[in-house]
Amino acid sequence: MHDILPEQTVIWQHIEQAARDLFRAYGYEEIRMPLVEKTDLFKRSIGEVTDIVEKEMYIFEDRNGDSLSLRPEGTASCVRAGIEHGLLHNQIQRLWYNGPMFRHERPQRGRYRQFHQIGVETFGMTGAEIEFELISMCARLWQALGLKEVRLELNTLGHTEERKAYRQLLVDYFSQHTDLLDEDSARRLHSNPLRILDSKNPGMQALIEAAPRLMDQIGDDSREHFLRLCALLDQAGIAYHVNTRLVRGLDYYSHTVFEWITESLGAQGTICAGGRYDSLVEMMGGKATYAAGFALGMERLAEMLVEEQAEMPDNAAHAYLVMVGDAASLQGMVLAEQCRHHLPGLRLISNCGGGSFKAQFKRADRSGAQLALLIGDDELASGTVGVKYLRADTEQAEVKQEKLAEFLDQQFGLTGQNISGTV
Ligand code: ATP
Ligand code: MG
Fold first, then answer.
1. I want to staple 132 with a disulfide (CB 3.0 to 4.6 A). Which of 68, 78, 102, 232 is the partner?
2. Do 139 and 255 sit in the same domain of this protein?
3. From residue 220, how far is each of 18, 137, 223, 224 by CA, in Å?
4. Number of domains in the chain
């Protein structure tokens, strides 16, 4: 589990801001769920024989002897909350959330035990339009963040009955080749055979390649749903690749599943994954409700922004206020407050904790600020502020204290409105 340091939170906030703006634009509302749920919730929704439930959950007993778990993902909690608060039955919902998830995995690049997801869940909508909306929203987010090296993989799992029939077909097929199965796959043969398709073991690839394809087994309705989504994506110019082996690790998907994958992160290249899960709400005790969603991994996305050297908003201070002497400090602190009052977008650091001119200038420089503002004995006497440009060759200047806010506004284009005489 990691600390996220200021150097990184800049990137995180940038992603979060872009996502928030986008979700609002599409009519999505935020929901916040607890980090802890009854263990049973995840067993029932994610499935007993998934990696998550079998070996990745943080499970503990609370003081009442109830078995609780740190949430390994958000969908189960979101559905639980939706049922509990009557948000789902006969309603349309577009929801999103953001927060930490916990899985006891082997830590490595892009894989952590506490990681963070931004998730989106929608309820009450049949038809491929909502899947198209979810995918477009992702595409627009990558665009907003300036990410280019990301591709979309798509598959359909059909509906539950079709998947069941296919499952048997797979069991029969792999049972004829048990000598070629690795340990993981042999274990999954009867518990979760679809997951064998997901195996990364190079030695298994030929066997998997020759396995029957779910795509060839689904009925007309399922095929139409999938083709409709493909048509929408084609129309909108969103490129995709149909990957018939994409099955996703969770049990609750049906019809569409998709992943956004990048090559710029090494082995853990999936930055976002989702799909339709029409059977989950009913499975968890609610009335049958259409549902679709996705979750993106914040750590992987943040790393990708660094890898691709995406443009980042400039959060460095505009100015650093240097004040030497008690009287100068008194006047300067008040002046700084006045500037902040008039210029809400101003990023101004006041020197606190004293120090010589030299020491304070050093701090000003290290802060990344564009300007050092200076008040010493001379400026105190003349009612001025010295202005030193820290990142440009511009000559040092002097500004009347009552004109400082106006000056900063002009320098940094903070309000665009005429504020003269307001200080
Ligand atoms: P993977 O195949 O990489 O294990 P998953 O199928 O378990 O992924 P999901 O449960 O679908 O992943 O979660 C959605 C996204 O959350 C992933 O695509 C990934 O970006 C991120 N994610 C999942 N597990 C981790 C983790 N342990 N550390 C960091 N990010 C993760
Ligand atoms: Mg996983």
1. 232
2. yes
3. 39, 28, 5, 6
4. 2
Within 6 A (CB) of ligand 1 lie: 73, 103, 105, 110-112, 115, 117, 249, 268, 270-273, 295, 297, 299-300
Q: What is the position in ligand 1's atom list of the atom closest to the CA of 73? A: 10
State the ligand closest to the CA atom of 250: 1
Helices (runs of H) and strands (runs of E) counted in the chain: 15, 16
Ligand 1 atom, smallest distance to 300 CA? 20
Residue nearest atom 23 in ligand 1 by C-alpha distance = 297
Query: What is the residue-averaged pLDDT of the chain?
Result: 93
* Tokens describing residue 190: 């009867």
Q: Which ligand is in closest contact with the Cα of 108?
A: 1
Do residues 408 and 278 share a domain? no
The domain that holds 289 is classified in CATH as 3.30.930.10
Does residue 1 sit within a domain? no
The pTM of the full predicted model, rounded to 2 decimals, is 0.91
Torsion of CA 364, 366, 368, 372, to 10 degrees: 10
Reported as a single tens digit per residue, the pLDDT across 310-362 is: 999 888 999 999 999 999 999 999 999 999 999 999 999 999 999 999 999 99
Ligand 1 binding pocket mutation candidate from 15, 106, 109, 270 (most atoms within 8 A of CB): 270
d(CA 275, CA 134): 9
In this structure, the answer to whether residues 279 and 368 fall within a common structural domain is: no
Domain assignment present for 247 = yes
